[in-house]
Amino acid sequence: MASLGKFGPAVGKVVALAVVALLVVAAVMAFKPGAEQKVMTAAFPRTVSIYEGSEVRVLGVPVGTITSVEPAGTTVKVTMEYDPEVKVPADVKAAVVAPSVVGDRYIQLTPVYEKGAILEDGAELGTDRTAIPLELDEIYQSLNDIAVALGPEGANSDGALTRLLQSTAKNFGGQGEQFNETIRNLSRFTSTLDNNKDALFDTANEIERFVGALEENDQTVRDFNDSLAAASSVLEGEREELAAALRNLGVATEQVSSFVKENEQALSENITGLVKFTDILVKQRDALDETLSAAPTALSNLYHTYNPETGTLDTRANLGQNIEEIERNPIEALCSLVGPLEDGVGICDQLTEVLGRPAPGAARGPVGKDVVVIENIDTSLGGILEVQR
Under 8 Å CB-to-CB from 178, ≥6 apart: which residues? Predict the structure, then answer.
């Protein structure tokens, strides 16, 4: 034990060295690119702060390293290796990302793989699929260019910019509240558009369809425009007559308006009566239809029964009585027809007096309670309807 204690410090140093060596070997093995690593080459316009050994990331997570950075004409060729277990989409793009203004940068692969084809091993990306950040000196140069363009050697060489700023200051002087309200309203407007973007896009789609329909019917639209132009030319040639017609129409409209105002009561009564009349026609439409259907036939029959030579209606009367009874006593038959009337008795007496003229034949008719014999009466219908000449 004493002997072991003597060599104790030396053994400790050896063990420490061995542990350090193992750690170094492990680190080298961990960071040394493996034979199974996938390779990708990308061309950048420039690669500021990109070096061999810089990281390759996906969503900020390291997945590989840069193995070489070589100039290639007007571009820079960057070769990268990444873990084969990481799936990279076939349409991947590479962008140089600057975490800060100064310091090392890394290359970000985007977009993240979701589905579809995978980028092949050894693929090359052109400058159309790479991007670089805007450098600080470029920002300074842009600001300097703007200042020179707006300075005394540029837009303000004759004081135009100064006058513009002064006029703007005068116009907006004291209008801060209104300007603030305008900005607020613009913000509300953009919020409304954002909340109704679906409807806005649908409207845009419908407008696109309408424009497409116009395009498909271009000739028809042109013909319509030509016809409209011809009509406009005709109206232009007749503009004086058209103007006179419009003036006369205005005068007539004014007169009609005055007439309506002056006769408002009468027109109202007439319209009310017309409404009642139309109501009656609607209620009696069946009877009116029957009348209109039978009236032409009845009038035609009446026309054919009239005898212009004798001035009589040559027809057979159907009085609802026995023909022999009518021939025997026509006065009684006629009195029975007019009897239901309000002044039936008076009418019957008048008929008795009218038919009392001499005529062949004889008939008996009731007058009061006694029967009066009337001699020499023409009992034929022709005698009754005979026209005095």
Answer: none
